[in-house]
Specification:
- There is one protein chain.
- This protein is mainly alpha-helical and about 500 residues long.
- The chain contains 23 helices and two strands.
- It folds into two domains: about 1-275 and about 360-500, no CATH class; about 280-355, no CATH class.
- It is about 70% helix and about 0% strand.
- Helix 6 (about 95-115) packs antiparallel against helix 17 (about 360-380) and helix 19 runs parallel beside helix 21.
- It starts with about 20 loop residues before the first helix and ends with a helix.
Length: about 500
Amino acid sequence: MANRDVISDHPKERKNRSIPPLLLLLLLGIFLGWICLFNPLKLEPLAVKTLVLAMVMIACWVLEWLPMPVVALFPLVVLPVWMQHPIAEVARHYADPVIFLFLGGFLLALSIEKWGLHRRIALNILLRFGTSGPQVIAGFMLATFLISMWLSNTATTMMMFPIALSVLSVLQNSCREDEMKTMSVALLLTIAYASNIGGLSTLVGTPPNIAYAGFINDHQPGTLNFMSWFGRAFPVAIAIALFTYLAFVKWLFRNTPGLNSELSSFIQKQHDQLGPWSVAELRVCLIFGGTALLWVIRTPLENWTSLPLTDAGIALFGALTLFVIPSESGGINSNTNVSRDKVERLPRLLEWTDTQSMAWGILILFGGGLALAHALEDSGLLQLAGNALAAGAPQSKFMLILLVTAGSIFLSEVMSNVAQVIVMAPILTAVAASLGLPATDLGIPMTLAASCAGMLPMGTPPNAIVFSSGRIPLREMLRAGLVVNLISIATISAFAAWWHR
């Protein structure tokens, strides 16, 4: 499964695979044994050991021989025992500040899902866009995009998917068969692609963003924070979404239904069933909005107050607030006929039991990636790889960015995007250093592209979800996905070149 926002995106819903073929295991063992015994690259002993560890971890991630978080724990065992790295030094990577930023983002997203705030936002947007084919596509794209900025792309798609199927069932009674087929494919692919594109905008929008930010901040502290990422990525995401919409309604899927009053009534009914805003929804909205505002104004607020504010601290403050504030008015459930020791507190906006559905494994994955990256750097392998790749790199900076972006997006069609970023980030950093470029010149385009795969059902969790409907022929996904991939490559490359012109 490519571009897998891993481990059930929250990160990625994945099916268990059979035991890996013995032939692949045998070949890998022979190859690693050859490297250890004959050292064909004439590396130092520490570099050989690190290379073996890296190849084993990458093979396990790519071929899915073990759960990705389990593989991410390898450095905690191998580095201290085999390479004499102090375990305290290795373990600190699993508590990197960026991991706690993502933890806070996860908890905020859980509260939004728990109280249905995302569904209310989506239906309100759909109500205001109209009921012709292009209007419905625009409404779903905007709603999905905005929600996916803060929720995982899988959770966003799972929420929008049944709404889309309901809309299609209403349209079926009043549309021609050819219009219906076109609308089905267009609407479902809109949800999948908008879920991926929206997540590009924020650091907490999708795991690859956090994975890269964690790596680069570990090497160059303060390089990326919430606002610096948002300032670069949000315009890119908006542009990709806009070009994708125009490609859908003006070229790929022009034969869509006209205005439909029945559909308008259906969406209004769905909205009315939500009823008025609940106390819990209002409080979650206020906390979420306050957290996002603090991320935006963090730097001027830090300068004004002299407080050492961080994105991770703000995220955790917002998340912890959810466990403190009750979901209803009042602080306790009291009854004059009940003894004092039986007075019960009201449920909070988040209870600890709610976190059972959270993707804890991805936090471990980030830590393992950082630990591996540091081991590769300490062994000198990154410098060797960077120098070798830099020697064959094109002279034009734009062409280099274009190649990195294109390679990343097509690689993510067949590889986990989180694992991809973990592997490529240190290599591209070394390449950039060899060429005298800022590391982010290549790293950010690579990271953004890793979340844009659209051609294959296994390319992203949203792709797999909408393809499971049986309404999307594979050739249509390949055709539309190729267009979206090309749009993403061109847009990301153009913006990346403009950032550092």
